[in-house]
Amino acid sequence: MNLGAQLKTSTASSAYQPIIGLEVHVELKTNSKMFCGCAATYFGEKPNTHTCPVCLGLPGALPVPNKKAIEWCIKIALSLNCKINEFSKFDRKNYFYPDLAKGYQISQYDLPFGHEGFIEVLKENGSKKVKKIRIRRVHMEEDTGKLTHANVSGENVSLIDFNRSGVPLVEIVTEPDFENEFQVVQYLQKLQKIVRYLGVSNADMEKGDMRLEPNISLQKEGETELPPYKVEVKNINSFRFVEKAIVYEMERQAKLLDKNETPAQETRGWNETKNATVSQRSKEEAHDYRYFPEPDIPPITTTVSEIAAFLSQVGELPDEKQARFEKTYGLSSYDAEILTREKEMADFFDKAVEDGKKHDVTPKEIANTIINKKIDTSTVKPAAVIKIVVEGKKKDEMDPAELASIITIVLSENTKAVEDYKAGKENVIMFLLGMVMRKAGKKLDAQEVKNAILKALK
Ligand code: ZN
Ligand code: MN
């Protein structure tokens, strides 16, 4: 559904072009945290059990960067067609919040690991036209602690769990290139698939592995300069809510602009129960954070040959895989999309095709069986699927005389259908075919049975 297009016609006085950008935080599933040896798992764990002086921000504790996390961040950047900075560094982003024990977050400012990449999406729903979404930067940082607002013994309190503090986080920032919410959702689906293919994140939205922050403004039709304001919606945890928040903002801002007002530059939140965005605070600029180089971590160099090695390890990505499934296996784009949604499924399919060759089973037959029979590929082997296809194609044998007598009975029981057929209604043959098959109680070759019926009708 393209609500953007609907909006254009629904907003009263003038038309606006939405200018949408996106910031996504993806949590990596490394064993340990970004700058210390604590376990990086926190979901469902007892609060404050995975902590140490580093991730609690105690005085004198020194951070040591997680090599694996940096490698994975670079692989994400490469998968998003980014250039990689051979010379990179960490910076301190200073701000106060109770979930940030140090008073700053270790992040990256001017030299992120990746920059200037892109993802391609379809311009409109059902369109074949492609829109290139430019990626400004892919950088590495650490997650904060988790605040929970609760009522304890009748008192409203805020509880803090530092298990999440210091978990490796990759931030992916686009240019404001999205023209509608349909492009945003496609981008998010592709990004989610890519990090899962790489095996670097579960990207499970419900667990907070992937957090989404769209920024939206409206440009008056005919204007070329970017709008003088930008509204950011923070920490959304579902694609559906991102879509809703964008549509809501487009409508809210259009109403203000219609009245010749400029929407405030601010950060808003998505309120699920109100189905609306709500104002949280005025938006900060980069200079508010007083970024400066992290003095406790030496700059990181990644050589050209290391980058080449990472690239070779990236492997076939979802879009390439889907294209290959269509081209090499002759699948429809619909089937190919389903079968490449998860890497495990795609690998299973490749293996099944290989196995199927020995049994005259085509990729299309395998695809149909997996999709239509909803095969759980995590519990069966590819060979089992081939067996299902082969069994399904096997026809029962029947003595021609026996078949002929069944046909005679069916024709005598369905005189009306026989008359209709003789009067020229040739489709009736399919009805008779069904009746004979049912009476025979066997899986016969449809073409043979049809021929036998035609013979009997003459
Ligand atoms: Zn720690
Ligand atoms: Mn961030």
Question: Can you characterise this structure?
Answer:
- The chain is α+β, with helices and mostly antiparallel strands.
- The protein is 38% helix and 22% strand.
- The chain contains 14 helices and 16 strands.
- The chain has helices at residues 3-10, 67-79, 181-198, 239-258, 304-314, 318-329, 333-340, 343-357, 363-372, 382-393, 400-413, 415-422, 428-440, 446-457; strands spanning 16-27, 83-84, 87-88, 91-94, 104-107, 114-122, 130-142, 146-152, 155-161, 168-174, 210-220, 231-234, 266-271, 276-282, 292-293, 300-301.
- The chain is elongated, with a radius of gyration of 30 Å.
- Residues 25, 141, 171 line the site of manganese (II) ion.
Topology of helices and strands:
Elements: H1 3-10, E1 16-27, H2 67-79, E2 83-84, E3 87-88, E4 91-94, E5 104-107, E6 114-122, E7 130-142, E8 146-152, E9 155-161, E10 168-174, H3 181-198, E11 210-220, E12 231-234, H4 239-258, E13 266-271, E14 276-282, E15 292-293, E16 300-301, H5 304-314, H6 318-329, H7 333-340, H8 343-357, H9 363-372, H10 382-393, H11 400-413, H12 415-422, H13 428-440, H14 446-457
Bound molecules: zinc ion and manganese (II) ion (MN).
Keywords for this entry:
binds zinc ion; 458 residues; nine-stranded mixed sheet; disordered N terminus; binds manganese (II) ion; three-stranded antiparallel sheet; 38% helix; alpha+beta; single chain; elongated; 22% strand; 14 helices
